Each structure stands twice: as C-alpha cells, then as structure tokens.
Amino acid sequence: MSAAYHHPEVASRPISDALLAELRAAFGPQLSTAPAVREQHGQDESSFIVPPPAAVVFAQSTADVVTAVRRAAWHRAPVIPFGAGSSIEGQILAVHGGISLDLGRMDCILSVNPEDMTVTVQAGVRRLQLNEALKRDGFFFPVDPGADATIGGMTATRASGTTAVRYGTMRDNVLALEVVTATGEVIRTGTRAKKSSAGYDLTRLMIGSEGTLGVVTEITLRIHPLPEAVSAAICYFDTLDAAVRTSIAVTQLGVPIARCELLDANTVRLVNRHSHTDLRESPMLLMEFHGSPDGVREQAEAVEQIAREEGGNAFEWATHPEDRTRLWTARHHAYFAGIQSIPGCRAITTDVCVPVSQLARAVADAVDDANGSGIPYFLVGHVGDGNFHIDYLIDPRDDAQRACCERLNEALVERAIAVGGTCSGEHGIGLHKMRFLDAETGAGAVDMMRAIKRALDPDDILNPGKIFSRPAAAHAGSICIGNVGSDAHSPSEAS
Amino acid sequence: MSAAYHHPEVASRPISDALLAELRAAFGPQLSTAPAVREQHGQDESSFIVPPPAAVVFAQSTADVVTAVRRAAWHRAPVIPFGAGSSIEGQILAVHGGISLDLGRMDCILSVNPEDMTVTVQAGVRRLQLNEALKRDGFFFPVDPGADATIGGMTATRASGTTAVRYGTMRDNVLALEVVTATGEVIRTGTRAKKSSAGYDLTRLMIGSEGTLGVVTEITLRIHPLPEAVSAAICYFDTLDAAVRTSIAVTQLGVPIARCELLDANTVRLVNRHSHTDLRESPMLLMEFHGSPDGVREQAEAVEQIAREEGGNAFEWATHPEDRTRLWTARHHAYFAGIQSIPGCRAITTDVCVPVSQLARAVADAVDDANGSGIPYFLVGHVGDGNFHIDYLIDPRDDAQRACCERLNEALVERAIAVGGTCSGEHGIGLHKMRFLDAETGAGAVDMMRAIKRALDPDDILNPGKIFSRPAAAHAGSICIGNVGSDAHSPSEAS
User: Fold this and answer.
1) Predicted confidence (pLDDT) per residue in B318-340, tens digit
2) What is the nearest CA distance from A353 to chain B, expressed in angstroms?
3) Partner residues linked to A119 by β-bridges
4) Is B495 a residue whose pLDDT tops 80?
C-alpha cells in the first residue's frame, strides 16, 4: 500500500530484538509478525494510513495479557489493545509502533446471573455472541454501536449507539472491570452491587480511556429482561428538519422510546442499494418501542401524533422479529453501504453531540456545510441523544478532500461546543479529535487527564499517541520520529 | 468537650501565622476563628470526636475558593470543603487540621434549562431549595439522601438515597462540573450533552472523591419532569424477611418503582415517637410509584400481588401530597429519631450494598448480629438497590460499645464483599471505611487511587486523611502527630 497520508502522531519507537525474542519464547504460535496479520491489526474504520504494529500477540487469558504487558513494560515498548478492529477514530493504530495485543480469543462468557441481571465476560466477547447467549435466559445487553464490536473495545471507547436513548451507554451498563495495569498488575474495579460510594470511580475512569490507562480483560455488565413487546416503525418526512423536530419533541415529552434513529435521503439511497431494501428515499426516523403491549401502543401513539404534526407520514410497522432484524441490519450496514459505494473510498466521520434543544440548528448547519462542500456524504443520527454523524466519503490519498472535511468538522465541532455540546458523542478521541479536547474542556482539564495518564503509565507504553496531542518536546530521545527505527528486528514498513 | 475517642488518622498539621494573616486580609469577615464556628465545622453526623479546623472561610464565589485554595496550597495547609455538615463518615472532619472551606453561601441556581432538562447550580445549593425552585417549571431533582444536603456535598460523596432505585445516584444525574484543583486552577469537566466519549471521565472521577481531588464549585444536573401521578403506599409484614423478599421480587420483576424503603419495627417505633405518627410497629415497606395514572395503578397492583404472596397486609395509601410529605419526612427523620431517643448518643452506621439476590441473607445475618450485641439499633434499607443501614446507637465515649459495633460492621462488610457487594453503598469512605477498601477492591486498585491522588494533589492539601489510611511512614517530618502544632496562631484544642 502506498501511504499518501501519515498522521502527525506517527512516531514509531523501535522494538528491540530482545523483546521480540522474549515474546516469541513466551507465546510461540500466539505471536505473529506476518505482514498480513500486522496489516490487519494496523487498520481500523478510520481513514488514517499509518505503519502497522511490529508484531501481534493473541492473548488467550488474563495471564497472557500480564505477560505481554510486563515484557513490553520492561522494554518500554507500546502495547495496543485490539478487539474487533471496528474503532472509528484510529484507536488501534500503531502510531508509535509496538505490539498489538489482540484480545479476540478471550471470548468466554464467564457467568450469567439472571437474579441480579448481571453477566461477566472476557474482553473479547462480541456483542452479537453475548446477545445470542443471553436470549436463552430471556435477557439482552442493549448497548448497540452497530458494529459487532467486542465488549472490551466498547468499554474502552465508552460506546453507545442506537439504544442509548433508553438504556444508556457503556458508562451506565458496566458495573465492574478486571484491568491489567501498565506494570502488568491485575486489578479489579467495582463490584456486582448496583451502586457504591467506596473510593474513586476507577470503573468509569477506565471506560472511555481507549486503552491508555490499562488493558480491560473482564467486564461485568448489567443486562436487561427482553421486553414483553417490541415494535419498530418507519416514519418518512419531507424535510430533514421535520424529522429532527419530531425527535426533539419525543425526547422532551419523555417518551421512553428505545431507538430513535435519523437517516437522511442519502443514507436511505445507499442502504437500498447495499441491502436491497425498497425504503422511500427521503429523510426518515427509524424507531423502536419496548415495553408491555399496552405501553408500546401508548408510546407509538404519542410519537405518531407528534410526527403527524411535523408532516410525517403514517408509520410503517415492522412487528415481526425478522422484519425488524432486516431493518436494523440495513441501518447498521449504512456505514459499509457508504464506503462500498465508491471504490477505494474511506469515511471521515463527525460525531458531535449537542443538548437536544440545539439539535435542529446543529443538523441544519452541518447539512448546509456538507452540501456546499461537493464531497459525497451521508447523515445518520442517534437523535434522541442529540448525537449525529456526517460521514464524508473521501479518497484517503486526496489531501485536499481530507483537509476540506477536517475544516468542516472543525466548524461543526466549534458550533457544537458553543452550545454546550461535545466533539465526540460515542466514537472517542483516538487520533482524530485530539485538537478539540482543549477547546471543549479547557486546557486545565486536559492537563488533569495528562497528569492521570503520567501517574498510571509513566513510560507511556499503553496505546501511546492517542487522546492527547504530543507536546512539542515530549519523548525527545526515547523515540525516533518517523517510521519504525533501525533496529534489525523491526519489520520493514509497508508504506 | 472531653474527647474520649480520637481517630487514628488525627494528625493535625500546624497552620502558620502567615496563612491566617493572608486569609484574614483576603476574606475579612468571611473568615472566622471563633470556637463555636470551628466546632460547628468540625463535627458531622459521624460519631468521631476530633479537633476542629483552625479557621473557617465562607466562600461566596468560585474566585473565593480559588483564593483560599491557592493560599492554603502555598502554605501546604489542608483545605476541607464543607457543605451542610450532613456527611455520615467523618468526611468534613479536620483530622489533619487546616481550613474548613464552607461553600454554603454559594447557593445560586445559575440556570434552568427546561428544554434540555438540565440545571446548573453553585455547590452550596441545597436539595430542598433546588426542588422548590424546579417545581415552578414542572421539574424535580430526584436524588434524595434524606438530609437537606448541598448539591456539592452530594456530588462529593456520590450520594443516592430513596429514589436511586428508579432515577439512579449522583453518578447518573451529574452531567458536568466546575472544580477548583489543588493548585487553585478552575477546570470544567463534561458538557450539557446527554453523552460524550471525549477523553477521561473526570466528572465521574470527581463524583465520590470526597473533596480529595478538587473542590466542586458548580454542578450541572439532569432534572426530571414531575410525574403525572404519584402514589405512596405502606405495606406491613409480620417478619423483616417477608418484607425483604417482597422488595427482591419487585426488583427482579423490573417494576419501575420510584421508592422502595424497608423499615424494621425498631425504626417504626422511633419514628412514631419522634414524628407523632401512628404507624403499626412491625416491619414495613414504604413505597412510591411515579408515572401516568394507568402506569402507577399497574405498578401498584403488581407490587401488591407480590406483597400478598409474602404475607404482606393490604396497602395503606397516601395519595394526597400532604400525606406523602408527612410520611417521607417521618422516614427521613428516622436517623434523628434514633439519635434523639437516647440522650448524648451518636450513631455508628453500616452501609453495605449487595447484589439483590443476596439481600435477604445479608439482612438476616446483620439482624442476628445486632440482636446478639445488646446495643440499641434500628434498620432502614434502600432495598431496591440492595443497600441497607444498621444504625447502632452508642455512647461516643464508650470504647467497648464502639469496638463492638466496629467488629459487627467488619463482619457485615466481610460477608457483603464475599457475595460481590460493597462496604459503602452511598455514605462514602470518609474516616470510617478505609480499612475495607483494600478488602473490597484489592490493594492494586487502592494503589491506583493513591497514584491519582498523588498526581492531582502532590502536597496532600485537599481533605487529607480521608478515603486512604495513612501509610506507616507517610508525611514524616511534614506533620506533627497529635493535636494542632505549636504555631502561635493555631488555636488551642477543645479536647
């Protein structure tokens, strides 16, 4: 692959012969330096092209994670936790080189406790696998970012998605963690109790820390009973604004809607082509209601009335499980429908989340900007939360297109922050939103985050180069700026 | 006051002349060293008797907090944030001496945003004051620890209380904070957006940190629409166990009950005497239902049926707002009813929270222990969360009684931890639960907490001596063990 674009954080540290030899001795066939394996672990759903990690360790247990982290810590080499590779902001990219630590084989569901509605899983368990297992006991795990991500990855990025409007995000649904620290120590945070005020909330500190403070190896989650009744409905609108205003009214009236997704006409067109659906190609809300049969009916009636006032069409219902599954699968494939619509393209995704009262204006301004750019895009939104994405479809080698999208995102984020919103509702900071963190929380809060990072990982081995921009003179001497260094065992770069 | 008991953490650092002079110059009448004022700021609802702070600063603005913290930081003197003084585990006690920073005068409600259902308040706003103001717009702030605490104090202790079963705790209801750091810098954490994945969750880190990582000065909260219908009901049971089993079944069936409080016969007797109520003196559940009229009826019917199966009596209803207020006021006064029932007594309060499936056994064992002790006690529980309190009424000067209660609490906590519970559901660690933190989360997690504390407050000026036990050789040289030191301006101790 010829890499036209390197992220400014790219500054690989050389991996020493000794470390590779130690890992090979410890892990045997669980270690790979094959180019294809490294490439696969060096690319996520972001548009960044950076050199892959020097090696991949496939952990099969917490003990494996401990071994890998301890060896890496001894040699001060970066360790990048890897789940399903579905991160969107470059979280798993080896910008400082080092070892990708793949937890995908740690996929055991360790215990299900129906009485307390909790489950404990290894970090590599995937969302769909978990729900398949829970279904037998009449439960489900609601957090649904679309991709079939690992629970560990979802924890690390504080994922949310389509159901957060009703069930909350990973922040709300994780009770306790097992974490391997930067020194390779195993710690536990939280308990199975519903609440606690015992000491600092390390669980919440780890959730969303993107692998920079520890490697999450086990997660205890809240689970929820499968709702007695579920209905999904589509409502078409003539304008995007009418759809957004409907979602705002639904939220403000406190209807406990389980999903409230906005799709613009571009998205519907892409979805139709990709998933062979025949949805009307106009703005729509795709909704789901959970509850008792009466409760679902009540909610749906309330929403239908609001939609009608905004010029929405009568609901089209999908009450059969298969129809619902087809509809939500199509929605979840919107992203792939987008990037597969133009050969070789990648998506640059915006992710602002604003107070709901500010949503209509935020969406309208974003759409104006996007239309003016001439760059193909589509828009989807978890609008009940005030969160929406514009996905620009760019040629990743076209610097001008990339720069244009980044400018548009910058303007979008600036407007979101000005009305009390955030640069990232659910995708995290990764490599992509670093420069917004100061603007959003102020330098003082970012300094506090950096102080915590330094305290818990003084040698900066855990997923370095993420969340925080590199201070001007940082790491001087300890890394070589540019590609992987001259160490004989560091693999040659693919760029 | 003759202090028979000093907590092992008592190790006052001397306050220098220079600091007191600087504070006097900066704050004038907002500074007090009057013995009565210091005593009032040196005692909370815990049973610990320790020397009061050297002085009290009454902050009227964030700028005042900055000034006080900067001056204290310069002199390495402890600063103890003070709200309403209603903490239960000694959080506001000046165990290392220093300055009490009273935020009670910072009581402005800064903005109410009905459209987004958020409110921003200064830290000294009290819970009842806030709800009085929100009522006008048709909203309420649900978190209800009983005491009329300040929102700042509730944030600092991660408070919850009677409504957490439905509306969550402070963890779930705080969106954003303004915090003054240990160096006197003002930082902001979080935004008004419903969710975010932008960087470390400093908001959640500050919530429950008991003033040891920063002084919370402003809080943005979620508020909720006043429910259309509210009903409260009392249900009496012949045994405590039957009441507990009812609450477990209600929780496991997912009834969205708004309050589900357990009172043992002792509590009811104390409440009757204190609040002149004529409740039947047997174990009871005191419940509240929120929703649409139909929803409330549905919930109540479901719970009544469960209760009947456990031998509960027919519900006694309190549908009139005045009756409900009287009932909940009586419940909230249970604590004071207890400590006023024996002249001069103080309460030692247990606070375990266990997975709901383990609650019946935990309560039964605790009651057996309490009955065997011969020490007067009463039991209340936020049983929908698995959280309950045994309040032992002791003579604070009776070392044998105190030691006995501590042994019983230790056994209770040990059993709770063994079944996946926590030593503190809602009161925090303070001075009292320190020794359980290691057992609950393991030394590794406590080391991580200590590392964060050191990183954010290297000179240990923010509420020192709380949450963590003093390591054997810590502070050597920088403090004098015993009472306030020999500095000419340090007030003489009252003990």
Assistant:
1) 878 898 988 898 899 999 999 99
2) 6
3) A112, A221
4) no
